[in-house]
Amino acid sequence: MGWVWNIPLWNRMGTGYVYSSDFIDDDAAEKEFKKYLGTEDIEITRKIQIRHGVRKNGWVKNVVGVGLSYAFIEPLESTGLVSTHVVIAQIIELLQRKKYTLTGFDIDGYNYSAQLNMNNFRNFVSIHYKLSSRADTPYWKYQTQEKDWWKVWDDEKDERKFHKFTIKNAGVMFDNFYEMIHFFHSNAHIWPPEFDGVAYIMAGMGYKPIDDYYADLISMDVEKQRQMKNVYQNWKTHAANLTEKVQKLPSSYEFMRDNVYEK
Questions:
Q1: pLDDT tens figures, 16-68
Q2: How far, CA to CA in Å, does 83 sit from each of 23, 115, 169, 175?
Q3: What is the spatial distance between Cα 125 and Cα 201, in angstroms, rounded to a whole number?
Q4: β-strand pairing of 2-8 with 13-19
Q5: d(Cα 24, Cα 228) in Å, to the nearest integer?
Q6: Would you say residue 172 has pLDDT above 70?
Q7: At what angle do helices 212-219 and 222-246 cross, to 10 degrees?
Q8: CA 32 to CA 50: how far, in whole Å?
Q9: Out of 15, 58, 150, 227, which residue is the most buried by the measure of CB atoms under 10 Å away?
Q10: Spatial CA neighbour of 112 closest among 93, 129, 85, 90
């Protein structure tokens, strides 16, 4: 009724089961988790009630919410960790740029920027569910076939909702993230490099922007051929830049060995 993570740590394997109480109770979820682990002889040490949402303002007077005190989406993709890093980096940058003398304008700007980042994280996590092809349980059938994802960005009832922003990508304005995905994928059949990681998730879920039939149609249109070649070249440049940066970084094992466990 959800998903399981397995994270290799230095001296053990960390694992957890994220599920929805709308579809399964705690006892049944524990039995399902133990079945997955292949043993009944294990103690489930913690059950955490996840509260989703984001504060209206992360910075109020002389207090700034960082990490879980500001917002939380869910464990998928560990956005809680990266959002903490992003928020701290924003605070440092602003304080240094303004030489530690801030106005209400600066704080409003920080809150606006922090909210945009959380919206992006929320959007990135959400498409993992919508793009899945699973329908083997009532939970996954609801996520992939029954849930109205257009309303995810329009729900005004929850006071902890994520704020709504108009999105601009490749010069086109969109009312929400889901519309942007359909504009590029379903309508234009193009995945631009500035797709905020969407293309990587879509490819991993088995999607592709065009098939052989559409590729043949494009081959007869000189302008579309030029556009596709331009998109492909942009992707090649983007991939080359990422590869160059990644190759300079230590592996996860090397980083933990040198900075965490063997100091």
A1: 999 999 999 999 999 999 999 888 888 887 888 888 888 889 999 999 999 88
A2: 29, 11, 22, 24
A3: 10
A4: antiparallel
A5: 46
A6: no
A7: 120
A8: 19
A9: 58
A10: 90
Sorting pLDDT into bands at 50, 70 and 90, what band is 169?
low
In sign, the C-alpha dihedral spanning 201, 207, 211, 214 is negative
pTM of the model: 0.73
Cα distance between residue 61 and residue 66, in whole Å: 14
**Alpha carbon distance 222, 224 (integer Å):** 6
Spatial neighbors of 59 by CB under 8 A, at least 6 apart, are 65, 107, 110, 111, 114
**Nearest C-alpha neighbor of 238 from the set 180, 199, 187:** 199
> CB atoms < 10 A from the CB of 214, how many?
13
Among 179, 185, 229, 187, CA closest to 209:
185
pLDDT digits (tens, 9 = 90+) for 202-222: 888 888 877 777 677 767 778
Separation CA 27–CA 228 (nearest Å): 52
Domain parsing of the chain, residue ranges: 2-37, 53-133, 167-246
186 falls in which pLDDT band (50, 70, 90)?
Answer: confident
